[in-house]
Specification:
This protein has helices at 28-49, 134-139, 157-161, 187-193, 229-234, 284-287, and strands at 74-77, 80-83, 102-103, 117-121, 130-133, 143-150, 177-186, 203-208, 214-215, 218-219, 227-228, 237-242, 245-246, 256-258, 271-277, 310-313, 319-321, 327-334, 340-346, 354-355, 357-362, 367-374, 380-390, 415-419. With 420 residues, it is an alpha+beta fold. Bound molecules: ligand MTE and molybdenum atom (MO).
């Protein structure tokens, strides 16, 4: 086989970069910082946008994404910005806030934390509605989880480029994902304080405060999507912090839901209300969108929940490498069903496979980093493949059945590489 990849089972375990998985509460200092964060964070950006305007001019609308999305870090799609995998190599396990992908159905809103409230209401509560202010939430006992947020459409472009059947929607590569540390209040704690009746509750519908979405000429209302009471009480988190900072505006300030392992749209940003119902709930985002349609799927295929197994190389697409120079190739793999157990890689289009070395943390509903040394890359054209298996035994297939909106592209992605 050309320029052989070597298994390296004794590759030294990367040490030192341990996750801060501690169980501290939000410190008093942090609490004060966070309470003060909302206004200055948003205020300074607003002011920058108006520089040079005459007094009395109406302020131009802010851009759909507030943070800078430079082309060396992001592929820009207007209201969405994809993380570039070839810029990930120097990062640790988590993706810093300024480097995290953004997916907005409309655009990032400006929310004043001082007047913001989270309202929990609905027929499956034993008492009337409950309301929480930002300081109320900051005072509650907090928990931190490390989890990915990944768009259901991540990998969509490969339906076209790899399977010859393009799907409608943003042409994401594999960078509509990021892993962060999220700190906040478990949704179960808030539902408990709102006197949920767990015997009657069926579905929970979080709703965002961003602008309503017009689709097919119809106003579909605010972005909202139900989840089962089981998942809501299990591990959903109302996050206030991302990687130790108050949530940035683009990622849901002042509060967002994190639904570990599920498709990104479940993790509602700019959370304003949560409906707790004694009957199944529907919205545009679990009936028309975010379910399999078209192809061979039946009309009643269920709404999507968990993500599938995927892998990405930390390389440009297509990639080039110098001939004869030893190199260690790196990548990451993840699954919505659990931890990654095994990653196999190939540099000959799948004729032979080698075990990659898994390194560092391997959290559930997050990802694992891996590497494979290549001692003597010989000149030529290659196709790199990475195929992960999770601890449920799910392995990435060679192809996936087509669906019209291009969700859950979990097939092995073929990554072109030239060695010269
Ligand atoms: N309120 C609201 N929540 C939302 C969205 C949105 O447009 N509005 N986009 C969803 C989708 S489709 C995804 S993939 C994730 C993206 O999260 P991020 O922008 O923090 O990466 O947020 C979800 N939550
Ligand atoms: Mo998404």
């Amino acid at each position: 086989m050309p320029g052989e990849l070597t298994d390296e089972r004794e590759y030294l375990e990367e040490r030192g970069k341990r996750l801060a998985g501690d169980a501290r509460g939000i410190s008093r200092r942090r609490l004060l910082q966070m309470a003060a964060a909302g206004a200055p964070l948003i205020g300074s950006l607003g002011a920058a946008g108006r520089a040079g305007a005459a007094p009395g001019d109406p302020a131009p609308p802010p851009p759909p994404i507030r943070k800078p999305t430079p082309p060396e870090w992001f592929v820009n799609f207007g209201t969405n910005a994809e993380m570039r995998w070839d810029a990930v190599g120097d990062l640790g396990y988590t993706i810093p806030n300024e480097r995290f992908f953004v997916r907005n159905h409309t655009s990032t809103p400006t929310i004043d934390a001082a007047t913001w409230r989270l309202r929990i209401d609905g027929p499956a509560l034993r008492k009337g509605p409950a309301e929480f202010s930002y300081p109320d939430l900051l005072r509650l006992h907090s928990r931190e989880i490390t989890a990915f947020v990944e768009c259901a459409g991540n990998g969509r472009s490969f339906f076209g480029s790899q399977q010859g059947t393009p799907a409608a929607g943003t042409a994401w590569g594999l960078g509509a994902i990021g892993v962060a540390r999220w700190r906040g209040v478990p949704l179960s704690v808030l539902l408990d304080r709102a006197h949920v009746d767990p015997k009657r509750a069926v579905d929970v519908m979080p709703e965002g405060l961003d602008a309503t979405v017009v689709a097919g000429g119809v106003d579909q209302g605010h972005v909202r999507r139900p989840l089962s009471i089981g998942k809501a009480l299990d591990d959903a988190l109302v996050a206030l912090e991302m990687n130790g900072e108050p949530l940035p505006p683009d990622h849901g300030f002042p509060a967002r839901l994190i639904v570990p392992g599920w498709i990104g749209v479940a993790s509602i940003k700019w959370l304003g209300s949560i409906l707790v119902s004694d009957a199944p709930l529907t919205s545009y985002w679990n009936t028309v969108q975010y379910r399999f349609t078209g192809g061979d799927y039946p009309a009643d295929s269920p709404p999507l929940t968990e993500q599938v197994v995927k892998s990405a190389w930390e390389l440009p697409r297509p990639a080039t490498l110098p001939a004869g120079v030893p190199v260690t190739l790196r990548g990451r793999s993840w699954s919505g069903h659990g931890r990654i157990r095994r990653v196999e890689v190939s540099n000959d289009g799948g004729a032979t496979w080698h075990r990659a070395h898994l390194r560092g943390p391997n959290h559930r509903s997050a990802w694992v980093r891996w590497s494979i040394p290549w001692r003597n890359p010989e000149a030529g054209a290659y196709e790199l493949l990475a195929r992960a298996t999770d601890d449920r035994g799910d392995t990435q297939p060679d192809t996936v059945p087509f669906n019209a909106n291009g969700y859950l592209f979990g097939a092995v992605v073929r990554h072109a590489l030239t060695v010269a």
